[in-house]
Amino acid sequence: MVNDEASFRVMRHPAFLIALVFVVSVKIFLFLNYAPYELAKNSPVLDYASAILKDSRWLTDARELESPFPFLLWRPIGYPLAIAFSKIAAGDNWSYFIIIIQNVLSVVSSVYAAILFMACGMNRTFSVISFLLLSFSVSLSNDLLLFSDSLASSVFIICISVVCTRFVMGHALEFGVIIYTGFGLSLCFLLRDSYLFIGAFTAVAVFFLIAAGGATVPNAMKRAVLFVAPLVIITSLIMGWNYMRTGHPVITTGGSTGYLLPVLKSAQQDLAVFGSDSLLDQVAREKVTDFDDADTYSINYALFERYGFNAFEISEMMKEKYFHTIVNFPDAYFASLRVKLNFRKQAPLLGDPLAQIDDLDYWASLSGGEAFETDWRSEIQRFYETRDPRTLSGASALKLVPRLFFRLTSTTLYFVFLLLVPVVGLWGMRHEKGSTWRRVSMLFLALWVVYALVVLMYAQFVMYARYLAPVSFIPILCSLTYLSIFFDKLRNREMGS
User: Fold this and answer.
1) CA-to-CA distance for 149 and 157, rounded, in angstroms?
2) Where does residue 206 fall: left (phi above 0), alpha (psi -120 to 50 degrees), or beta otherwise?
3) Do 24 and 103 meet the contact criterion of CB atoms below 8 Å apart?
4) Three-state SS at 436
5) Given a cut of 70, is residue 15 above it in pLDDT?
6) Tally of CB atoms within 10 A around 15
7) CB-CB contact of 463 with 261 (8 Å)
8) Three-class DSSP category at 297
9) CA nearest 455: which of 443, 463, 447, 444?
10) Hey, which bits of 166-210 come out as E strands?
């Protein structure tokens, strides 16, 4: 039976302390070698922060008619506020200040996750391994970029780890725990608006866990509603504030590209998607070149500058086109969806540090205006595409070997997660009510569904690895717990024979 003492034992184990020091050392090394990049893609957020510090005009005027991407509406207010605070606290060194905050919070979230790993039945060795895998997953690069994903995912992992740990230990989810984790979820939403949906998925999981843990359905419903209530309140306040500023009750205007990009990916499969005589289709046929982000901006600017549409009208136009594409071109839409649901791209989430280093090098090259896939990188990419080892030089092969090792390891763990959780989880539900393994099985099933829903949500629009950072701990938790229990049983059997 797992208890409080067992769950915190990992924190006092020398191996964990060594791993913690190692993780912090790696993060310091990367911090010293990779600058916080003020990426052009994030310029609306930086402009928002500057407007906050300049005067109070932003409170009542969203300047929504100045651009197809009004920077006071393009993204939620949370990260601009964090940047503004960093500028006040650290002056010209604000970017380093916020990157330090992101890295510290990321380490804290990994520690909370390690406690959950131990509570779910991992032995100390596997808990330490899982801590390292999570620390060297997508957060390794995320924490050094000026994007909101790092802060939001760290807060989310802390909140969910608290809820899940208490559930696995058999403790009631008191109102206090529900409320402060609910407010943590609201903070995530202020940093990134997609947490409105992630929060809804999580609230359903919380309801299931509370009900399955023995509470009555009305009581479970009450606590799930309480969990999501702060998020609903904050969302309503944001929409009301934007209605006061613009006359439109919106959260952001990010839909102008968010809805358009999946349409472009569908058109890449079937050009007939833009085959009508509508104004949008005419502009798209003229502007589309690569079916990627740059095309979404070109189309938006053409609609704004040439035809006078504002951000709200463009966003609504893109939304209608998105659903029109699903209904009228389902084959093209689902073909593009299958491309985005490439499991090989998700697998590096499970502790592939070299993939994260490569990601940092990519952002460094982008910031410096340099080519990324040069020399050995281009050779490795050709090898991935052709599977022909003759494309590799000796130096490239040496760089490829550790990358293949991490890729194969992470892919194996990922498929363990995808395939075993539904099977083993349903089998574990048959155990005695109130048993630890039954609670672990219920938790893993709930988290598996949350992970799948988050992946499907992003796959419908655009899916980058950093978007999956908040749920990156779930495959690590489930797959490593199963492996830990398997090896423990194997060792006990050998000792008994």
Assistant:
1) 12
2) alpha
3) no
4) helix
5) yes
6) 14
7) no
8) helix
9) 463
10) none
User: Which tokens in the block code for residue 333?
Assistant: 């839409």
Listing DSSP states for 67-132 in one string gives: -SS-TTTSS-SHHHHHHHHHHHHHGGGHHHHHHHHHHHHHHHHHHHHHHHHHHTT--HHHHHHHHH
* The dihedral formed by the CA atoms of 107, 113, 119 and 122, expressed in degrees to the nearest 10: -90
Do residues 287 and 295 lie in contact, with contact meaning Cβ atoms separated by under 8 Å? yes
The DSSP 8-state label assigned to residue 3 in this structure reads -
Query: Do 52 and 298 form a contact (C-beta atoms < 8 A)?
Result: no
2 or 436, which is more confident: 436
User: Mean pLDDT score of the chain, rounded to an integer?
Assistant: 87
Give the three-state DSSP class for 37. strand
What sign does the dihedral 28-33-36-42 (CA atoms) show?
negative
* Secondary structure class of 137 (helix, strand, coil): coil
Which residues are CB-contacts of 479 (< 8 A; sequence separation ≥ 6)? Answer: 350, 413, 414, 416, 417, 420
In the structure encoding, which two tokens stand for residue 8, read together? 């915190």
| Amino acid residing at 182 | G
State pLDDT tens for residues 240-296.
999 999 999 999 998 888 899 999 999 999 999 999 989 999 999 999 998 888 899
d(CA 223, CA 454): 22
What residues contact 56, with CB distance under 8 A and at least 6 apart? none
- Between CA 145 and CA 163 the distance in angstroms is 28
Asked whether 349 and 142 are in contact (CB, 8 A), the reply is no
* CA quadruple 299, 303, 309, 315: dihedral, nearest 10: -20
Q: How would you class 55 by CB atoms within 10 Å of its CB: exposed for 0-12, middle for 13-18, buried for 19 or more? A: exposed
Query: How many CA atoms does the CB half-sphere of 440 hold within 13 Å?
Result: 24
Residues β-bridged to residue 37? 145
Q: How many CB atoms lie within 10 A of CB 318?
A: 23
H or E element at residue 21:
helix 14-33
Q: Closest by alpha carbon to 39, among 142, 147, 143?
A: 147
- Rounded to whole angstroms, the Cα distance separating 457 from 289 reads 26
Q: Which residue, 85, 108, 112, is CA-closest to 98? A: 85
Instruction: Give which of 25, 8, 28 is closest to 99, Cα–Cα.
Output: 28
pLDDT the model gives residue 1: 36
In single-letter form, the type of residue at position 438 comes to R
DSSP assignment string, 371-385: -SS-THHHHHHHHHH
